[in-house]
Structures
1.
Amino acid sequence: MFLTPYTKLLVIVGTLIGVVLLMFATPFLIASGSTFASREIVQVIFIAMEFFGAIFLLNEFNRLRIIIKEKEMGDQRLANIENGIKKLSTFKKSSAGMKGIILAGGTATRLFPLTATTSKQLLPVYDKQMIFYPLNTLIKAGIKDILIIVAPDHSGQFLNLLGSIFKKFGINLYFEVQKVPKGLADAFILGENFIGDDNVAMILGDNIFEDDVYDEIRQFKKGGMIFIKEVKDDPSRYGIVEFDENGKAISIEEKPKFPKSNYCVTGLYVYDPQVAEIVKNLKPSDRGEIEITDVNRAYMEKGDLAIRKIQGEWLDAGTFDTLLEAGKVVKEKEIYKNFDPLVNEAIAEFNEEMKDKTKRILDPYKLYLRQSEKNQKNI
């Protein structure tokens, strides 16, 4: 049984009181009984034992008092730190009225061994890392505050690449580590403080869009909005939207065995600030995850879900085949040319900075090699 310092302190105080009372009672106890030695010697022994016991208890009392004081001071320091973090984590309202989230966590086991050493979103798609495509989608929509949710294993790699790449362009990137994937909708709980009172557009880190969806995002006011795409191959792998005879969306089903249409929900979602509260009231699915489909259903049931169809390419680069296909489509359809000039300039500056850094490292080594060659010739 483990006692708290406060309980131990009460026990010691009670014991000390008992010892003091025993010290006063010892002469009377000795006088009333027979002993193996003289009463004076026994009395001295009893009093000595009680005296040293009292000293020990007093020392223990003082030690616990110091521990309790240090604990209280530590609790106060921790409270101050937590308050400081809360102040630092208080995000300002976005001037654009909307913030962005990129979900780049998870383990991407379908891409092992590629993702054993890096994040899926840092793999190349034609001439850029995958993460730049969703970043471009949000930036072209006028979003300047973007939260990137990453897995702990590769968080440092994201910081090395993106830490300050857009700083001079007025684009603020923030990072949140998701230790355990709990479903797409968990992003709105992790990012609740970041979202604040702003609308939010979330895009999956492996999704690439050919269509210009930027105006749709800019013009969004309230409720929810999703983007759907007609797929030919195996719609049961996606969240599927069902329509009535008038073309009105009436249901959304996650990975149905018997799809009621070929229109799947893509990885781009736009919601108002209520999304965090909606997600917190959802129950995890049988997979133990908070499903984004349930979020969309909640908005649909209120009549607040807008649905936009996209006609151009939608690439979900989550497997070897789709990753390879994504690179081909980006090149052939020249999607790589659709980047915001701001993004292209930031990447170009980053490349030059890395070249200069590499040159500074290699030049002394090359000089050393040349000097070694000369020395060898002179021998």
2.
Amino acid sequence: MIETLQSLRFVFVMMIFMSHFAYQDIQAFEAGGDCGVAFFFILSGFVLSLRYGGQIREGSFQYGRFLKRRFWKLYPLHLLCLVFFFVVSKAILDWPVLLNALLLQAWVPEPDYYFSCNSVSWFLSSLFFCYLLFPLAYRRVSKWWVFLVLVTYLTILFLTPYDQVNAILYVNPLVRFADFYLGILLCRLYERGYDIPSPKWMELLLVVLLIAALVVYPSMDAKLRNAPLYWLVLVPLILVFAKGQGFVSSWLQKKPMLLLASLTMPLFMTHQMLIGILFHRFPDIPVVVMLFLSVFTVLVVSWIIDRFILRPLGRLI
């Protein structure tokens, strides 16, 4: 993966982390959660297209092997978190748990289902659906297909009741496919080549625009906050940072950032459960201490999982 984009994964996963850090008088950073999720769906489409697009065009793409690699890259971590959830919460086996284990929970528009067990795992449920459609979607990049996806998304956006925004616009795999497809389109544009005027200042401008989007988030219509608000910033941000020519990119390419970026997926999958345990165990310690303890704990656990589970598995596939 392009180093700058790899490090941006850590930045955005920490936004998601803070969206779940509601402790004492500190409110959850909800704007960061929606932004982070949109970023990861778009980036997934971009990165997969960059890696496998040539194979698809040449006819050498192996669909079964692709799905196998995606499965072994993510499902063992999902299963580990699910087992941990069972041990800690002493949950019982029921339909939400079963669908969660099968990564089908995002298809059921009920919070008890799509946010069941390790609630962030809904992301994997929607992401695997995007993986299933990836080679088909990659071959369907044209003005008409872009128009069809856009019109479909806008129609669903308009028809979605406000009490179903989470179930449909935030979680549903069919809807989140729009973000993923946008990533495929971005990769096609990236591969054509383009010049970034004043890359140093362009990167700084996009950082400012991203902060502005996060600031206006609370005042935006609930239907626009899940993705469309951030598309306006994330699209140019990914294209500019993919070039890696500015000051911010030079910082993102440093070894400490790349190390932290390598922990993104275990950090994403474990953080909500771990900070929940810490909140319950230490309800009265100062906020700053809790924040430090939470970040430290999640990073250490993520490193252990990456070093002793994910990397050995990665060498087998």
3.
Amino acid sequence: MLLSSTLFVFFSYICNIDLFLECEIMKKLFIFALMLMLSMSDFALGKVNPDQAPDQNEEAEIGNFDFIYGKQANLNEAFEQTEMLMSEAFSHLGARYRSGGKGPSAFDCSGFTSYVFKQQADMFIGASSRDQYARNTPISRKELQSGDLVFFTSPRSGRGVGHVGIVVDVDPISDTFTFIHASTNNGVVINSSTDQGYARRYVGARRVKRC
């Protein structure tokens, strides 16, 4: 502001103040000097870095968007993998149950889950329900997602793992889920965690890490 005041006094000294304000050339000179002063003050206050590349901030913003879209791409890929997994599982609805059955025409519970993951992702998740429970990543019931493994007791397993299925859908509000599995009586079917035969038999859940 000191510079602008000095310039104003200088021009007023040379010209009558009324003439100065009416003089277009002088007005332009005064505005130019004022703009020069403001730009110099920005440098002085550190608002402008003369060594900074002009597109640095823009490049940083583009990098941020790449990071966001990269994560979105990973989410889309995971969704597609789960969709393919469930499609494979649903294709066997109605297949009959057979103890020790590994598919594709008949299954037991662990034979069904291992067959689905092998066909869709070429992954070995374990031979028996107990092996699958021990081999894969533990998760809480609140973390359940479509494609996770859920485990139950069976009449012959006592309190230990004796049955396994694949989560189809989750309702986080009611803390319930549906799952597809090879049941002893009905073959490959979809049941709810609230169904009488499974509500009190739930043991835990595991997530299969996919490459």
